[in-house]
Amino acid sequence: MSGTLSGPCPVCQQTTTAPGGQTPDSGCGTLLATAISRQSCQHRTIPSIDIRRDFDDWLEDSRLFGNRVCLVCRRYYPADTQFCTSDGTVLRDASSRSRTAPLVDGRLQLTSFLGSGSLTDVYGGTDLQTNMGVAVKILRRGLSHDNKLVASFLDEAERTRHLSHPNIATIYYSGTLPNGRPYMVTEYLPEYRSLNAVGQEGNVNLVRLLNILLAACSALEYAHRNGILHLYPSGSNITMCSLHSEETELVKVCDFGIAERLFRDLPVEQHASRTMGIFGSPLIISPEYCIGEPATEKSDVYGLACVVYLALARRPALGKNSALGTVMAHLQDQPEPFDQFLGVPPMLAETVFAGLSKKPAERLTIQEFRERLSRCLKNLTP
After folding, report:
1. Are 232 and 279 in contact (CB under 8 A)?
2. Distance of CA 307 to the CA centre of its chain
3. What residue ranges do the domains of the chain occupy?
4. CA atoms of 143 and 139, how far apart (whole Å)
C-alpha cells in the first residue's frame, strides 16, 4: 500500500509520518491508529510521566464524577441536568478524566469517590485479584504529611485486620498509594447510611435505634475482648445497610482502633490540640482522654452515650461554639435533661446519663450499657 501515514502519538503528542506499509524502526514505541494502518511513533524523546501527580489529580477529579458544569457561571448540577438554570447554557461533564484511576499495587482499581470522614477520604473500587467491590479509605491529605501518623495508620490497619465480627466492617489489607498517602481496603457496604443521617430524619424510631445501638455495643464488646479500643465511635462510624427492610438491616461499625492509634504516645499537652486538629469539634471525646489520661473501654462507652444523646435530643450532649469550648464542657459541664416533648423513656434517659458520667469509675461498662439498652428495648416491644 502506497502513501504517507500521519497521526498524533498519544504519549509524546507529536505527529509521526512514515511511508505507507512501513514500520519506523525507532521511536517511543506507541502504536498509532490511522485510517490506513497502525504504525509506531518515530519520536525518540518521551516526556516523563509523573505517576504521583497523575494519581493526585485523579483523586481530586473523582469528586466531580457524575456531575455536570456550566462553563459560563461554573455552577455544578446533577448528571441528569441538561441546561444551566441561570443562563441556559448547555451543561458539560464536570470532569473529562477517565473514571478509572491508575492501578495500585497491581490489583486495586479505584473507580469513584464515595465521601469523606473525620480521618479518611473514601473511594469505591475493585480488587482485580478477587473481582470484588471494595471501599478504599485513604488518610486525609492534611494528615498524610505526618510520618508518625502514616506509620500509625498502617500499623493499626494491620492489627485490626484480624477482627472478625458481623457488626464490624472487615479490613482486607492496606498499603501506600503512589502519592505517599496510606490506605486500607475494607468491605464495601452498598447503599449504607450512617446513624447521623438516621438521627436527622425527624422523629426517631426508638425500637430501630435501640437495635442499632445493641449491634454497636456487640461490636465494641468484641473489640475490647481483643484489646482494641475505638475511641471515636461517632454516628458517622456506625452504618446501616438495609437487607430487605429496616427490621433486617445490617449494622457495621467502622474504623476500629484507627483514632486511638493516632493519639497514642502523644505528650499530654498535645491531646486537646490533636483532638481538634483531627476531628474538628470533639463532640464525643471522653473527659479523661481530653486531659491526657489513658483511654479505656469506658472511654468508648462515653462516646457511644454521646451518640445516643445526639440521636434522641437532636443536639450534642456538650457541644459549644468552639472546639476548645467543647473540650472544656466535657471536663466541667453536665448535659441538659431531655426535653419532655421528645418522649424519651425514663429508663433510657437514665442509661444515657449513666454512660456520660465524668469519672470512669462511676461510668457503666460496655456490658452494663448493652444490658440496660436491651431492657429498654424489651419495655418497648410486646
Report:
1. yes
2. 18
3. 4-40, 48-99, 103-188, 193-380
4. 7
Q: How far apart are CA 283 and CA 202, in angstroms?
A: 21
Put the strands of the sheet holding 120-127 in their side by side order. 108-116, 120-127, 132-139, 182-187, 171-176
What whole-number distance in Å separates Cα of residue 150 and Cα of residue 358? Answer: 32
DSSP state of 201: S
Cell output for 294: 489513658
How many other CB atoms sit within 10 Å of the CB of residue 40?
A: 17
SS3 state of residue 187: strand
The answer to pTM > 0.85 is no
In this predicted structure, which of 47-61, 183-197, 250-264 has the lowest mean pLDDT?
47-61
Using DSSP, state whether 18 is helix, strand or coil: strand
pLDDT in tens, 128-146: 999 999 999 988 887 788 7
Measured CA to CA, the distance from residue 179 to residue 335 in angstroms comes to 44
Task: Return the C-alpha cell found at 357.
Answer: 458520667
Fold assignment, 193-380? Transferase(Phosphotransferase); domain 1 (1.10.510)
- Per-residue b or e along 248-287, where b marks 16 or more CB atoms closer than 10 Å to that residue's CB: ebebbbbbbbbbbbbbeeeeeeebbebbbebbebbbbbbb
The answer for residues whose C-beta is within 8 angstroms of residue 328's C-beta and 6 or more apart is: 320
> H or E element: which one contains 113?
strand 108-116
Read off the C-alpha cell for 312.
434522641
Positive or negative CA dihedral for 51, 54, 59, 60?
positive
Q: Which residues pair with 43 in a beta bridge?
A: none
**Measured distance CA(107)–CA(291) in Å, rounded:** 43
Encoded amino acid at 362, one letter? E
Class of domain 103-188 (CATH, top level): alpha beta
Q: What is the pLDDT of residue 265?
A: 46
Cα separation, 80 vs 273, in Å, equals 44
